[in-house]
Structures are given as C-alpha cells and as structure tokens.
Automatic annotation (TrEMBL):
PROSITE patterns according to UniProt: HTH_ICLR (PS51077), ICLR_ED (PS51078)
Name listed for the protein in its UniProt record: Transcriptional regulator
Keyword Transcription in annotation: yes
UniProt-listed GO biological process terms: negative regulation of DNA-templated transcription
Entry GO MF terms: DNA binding; DNA-binding transcription factor activity
PANTHER family: HELIX-TURN-HELIX TRANSCRIPTIONAL REGULATOR, ICLR FAMILY (PTHR30136), HTH-TYPE TRANSCRIPTIONAL REPRESSOR ALLR (PTHR30136:SF24)
Organism phylogeny: Bacteria, Bacillati, Actinomycetota, Actinomycetes, Kitasatosporales
Amino acid sequence: MTAETSQTLDRGLKVLKLLADTDHGLTVTELSNKLGVNRTVVYRLLATLEQHALVRRDLGGRARVGLGVLRLGRQVHPLVREAALPALRSLAEDIGATAHLTLVDGSEALAVAVVEPSWTDYHVAYRAGFRHPLDRGAAGRAILAARQRAARPADEPGYTLTHGELEAGASGAAAPLLGVTGVEGSVGVVMLADAVPERVGPRVVDAAREVAEALR
C-alpha cells in the first residue's frame, strides 16, 4: 500500500475478487483468514458492500457476489466492443464475411460487436444483441471448448467450425478469447457457404488473439 491508496477500498475489492472465484460463497471466518484481518473488519466490509448490493449473504451466513455487480458489468460491454472493433473490421474485410465478438451472458452467448464487410455483394445479417445457447453455433461452441482446453489434445485446432446450427445455409468459425481476466468470449465469422474455407480458421484465431491483446 502507498500513501495514495486506500487500504479499506483495497480490502473491499479483494473481498469481491475472492467471492467471484468461488461458487459456494465464503464465511466471515474464511474471508478473515484469506485477508489476514480480524472478523470485525470483515463484517464492516461486508456491510458496506451489501449496502451497494455488491455482496449478499445467504441464510447460512455465507457471503456471495451480489446482483449489483451485474449492473456494473453491463457497462463493460461498450468498452470491450470499442477495443475489439479494429480487429473485427480487419477480419470482416479480409475474409469477406460478417465478423463478431461474442461474450458469455449467463447460459447464453451474446453478440456484443458485429462488423459486416464493405465489399461483398451479399453477406449474413448478424446484429449486436443476438443471443443463442452456448452449445449451438461456432461462437458458443468455441467458448465451451476453451473451458475444456486443458483436456484437449495439443494438436487440436484453436478454432471451431459449424454449419447450419443457427441459420440454414450459414457456416461459422470462431476462436476463444484467451488470457483476458474477467472476460469469457470468442471472435468469429459467419458466412453463406456450405463449408468454411481452410484459411478462415487460422485467420479467426489471429483475430481473437488481437482482440485479447487489446483487452489486456
């Protein structure tokens, strides 16, 4: 800690990070041990965070992340979209297909940024705000594959291809965003084709890497 920082705010943010890393919540004692402070300090931190709906406590007394965090999270989408647009524009123009950035929203995939190519005679209309199940479409499947990447063979491609899962006659390719703390998503393209050309998969991987670097 330096003279310019707030110890209380630092501890409060650490509480939120600890709670975000667990699915089962933490007790006051567990938080006290992890933070290295006494229980009275933890009670005060939780009470303050509860006032702002950033933390909630269940009937068993375990603290969990509160719904107020979702309101803050909604403001992240415009920032993520802005950072991703240059890579998406380059991808769309290079491939001649609609490029998109998709993030996880609960159990769904949510398109938060879409760029259509400027030079094609026709392309797939794909709008920001479009939602679909994570297990349908290249964008969602790429995210699910990333969750299991530790178990994948090392020679598996870093992209996912699909055909006709979200729109008849359309094929998709997507690669997950990797190494971006707090952001789970993918970058991909969708095109009117029976199959995705061979060069598209690696190009999508490169675009996902560019977006990830822009978000770090």
